[in-house]
Write a structure and sequence with these properties.
By secondary structure, this protein is an alpha+beta fold. The protein contains 9 helices and 22 strands. The strands form 4 sheets. Strands 15, 16, 17, 18, 19, 20, 21 and 22 form an 8-stranded mixed β-sheet that branches. The chain has a 7-stranded mixed β-sheet with strand order 8-7-6-9-10-11-12, with helices on one face. Strands 1-2-3-5-4 form a 5-stranded mixed beta barrel. It binds S-adenosyl-L-homocysteine.
């Protein structure tokens, strides 16, 4: 069957954004094919009851298919929906959420996805791998680098700075020392941080690079060398050296100021972050009698936004630099009812849960561990706000909570236009008290 060309019609889309076609009991997943499209599909891989295909000749096109804004859209692993009309991307994300929750036996209403006003140039952080004289993004499921000049998802300034850095590094013939270039562009302040992930701290010519790039772009407020000696999939190493400006940049958001370090997490879509946090505030119904625990608090963005409305807020986070930022952020905003702790949410969290009314959870993609879910259920916390960037782990975790908590509608926010990813917020309200 491999290499055969078959006539197929697309009837659905997978969680990974691939078209789903069916023929004679066989399911074929087709890259970049939309529901209602028909065409000749070349089978490239076959397993027992399923196969993978690519479009050989598209005969019936979806009215939602567009010319990608980016010339490398279908090569680079960043955008899954580069060829899809923006309004329809939101519909597809809603469909993906509906099937994810249904497959996990959760009967929850999925609200419409909150759209971005401008889906282009939204990202405020870019990480660019450097290898073998190439600078680019990884192809999907591979370590091949696809080069680019301008990425339609990155800020325009980041694209320009990237091109300048690449040219300087190639001119100085020092690209062998580099593993990644990181550019963070704070949209509210227009400050820029450059992180240079290198194999060695001693690189001759690095002073010249700093001089040239900072002369050209006054927005740059920080350049950091990050030493990464080992070859593995982790991007950042432990040791850092600030070679220009501060070891942080500042952004203005939510009526507050935030310091952001190289190692700290910060929401990558500035405009949608505001919508996300307003949604959290609205759904959580915080008032001055309420004490909030913000688990996975990063640099304290949610904590400090809620602190204005709450009695007290406690934030817990595993990255040391993020907690240093969070504490400084409370101080520079004159907020004195927010407290931050360096801790692992997989440790015993009971000491933080003892005296709070609302818990905000915003875990990384892998979601919550079972021990934390049990502690939350046993502690009898009345209200939990679950913010998730991965519907699959959200659905898994909600299944543990559902006997003890009433679960609200799912409120999706499009933080990541042109990709298959979507952020969701849901509220859990206590039904009964303990596990037994
Ligand atoms: N709520 C913040 C950060 C969310 S991202 C914001 O909106 O900006 C998730 C955060 O969880 C990251 O800062 C990450 O460093 C942190 N994290 C990851 N694993 C953790 C763990 N086991 N315990 C505590 N924090 C963790």
């Amino acid at each position: 069957m491999k290499n055969d060309i078959v006539d197929l019609k697309c009837i659905d889309i997978t969680n990974e954004g691939q078209g789903v076609c069916k023929k004679d009991g066989l399911v074929v997943f087709v890259k970049e094919m939309l529901p209602d499209e028909e065409g000749q599909i070349k089978i490239i891989k076959e397993k027992k009851n399923l196969a993978y295909g690519i479009i050989d000749n598209l005969k019936v096109k979806s009215k939602y298919r567009i010319m990608p804004k980016c010339p490398i859209s279908s090569k680079c692993g960043g955008c899954d929906f580069g060829y899809v009309d923006y309004g329809y991307q939101l519909q597809l994300k809603k469909n993906i959420l509906e099937s994810t929750f249904k497959n996990m036996n959760l009967d929850l209403k999925i609200k419409d996805v909150i759209a971005a006003d401008n889906p282009n140039n939204y990202r405020n952080k870019v990480q660019i791998p450097v290898n073998n004289h190439l600078f680019g993004f990884y192809r999907n499921y591979s370590n091949d680098i696809v080069e680019f000049d301008e990425c339609n998802c990155q800020s325009e300034l980041s694209n320009k700075i990237f091109n300048t850095l690449k040219k300087i590094i190639l001119d100085l013939k020092i690209d062998d020392y580099f593993r990644h270039l990181i550019i963070k562009h704070a949209k509210g302040s227009n400050e820029v941080m450059i992180g240079l992930v290198v194999k060695d701290f001693n690189i001759s010519g690095i002073e010249e690079l700093v001089k040239e790039v900072t002369n050209r772009y006054r927005e740059i407020k920080s350049i950091i060398l990050n030493l990464k000696e080992r070859d593995d999939n982790v991007i950042l190493g432990e040791k850092e050296k600030t070679i220009f400006g501060n070891n942080y940049i500042v952004d203005y958001a939510l009526g507050l100021k935030f310091r952001i370090s190289l190692k700290s997490f910060y929401q990558i879509n500035y405009e949608q972050m505001h919508k996300l946090y307003d949604l959290i505030l609205d759904l959580a119904k915080i008032d001055k009698d309420i004490k909030v625990l913000d688990l996975y608090c990063g640099i304290g963005t949610i904590s400090l936004y809620l602190a204005k409305y709450a009695k007290e807020v406690f934030g817990v986070e595993i990255v040391k630099e993020a907690i240093i930022n969070a504490k400084a952020n409370a101080e520079i905003n004159n907020i004195n009812n927010a407290y931050f702790y360096l801790d692992d949410a997989n440790n015993d969290m009971n000491k933080y849960l003892k005296d709070v009314d609302v818990v905000v959870l915003d875990p990384p993609r892998k979601g919550l561990n079972k021990q934390l879910i049990d502690s939350l259920i046993n502690s009898g916390i009345k209200k939990i706000v679950y913010v998730s960037c991965n519907p699959a782990t959200l659905a898994r975790d909600l299944n543990y909570f559902k006997d003890y908590y009433d679960i609200s509608d799912i409120n999706p926010v499009d933080m990541f236009p042109y990709t298959k990813h979507v952020e969701c917020v849901t509220i859990l309200k206590l039904k009964r008290k303990t596990i037994n």
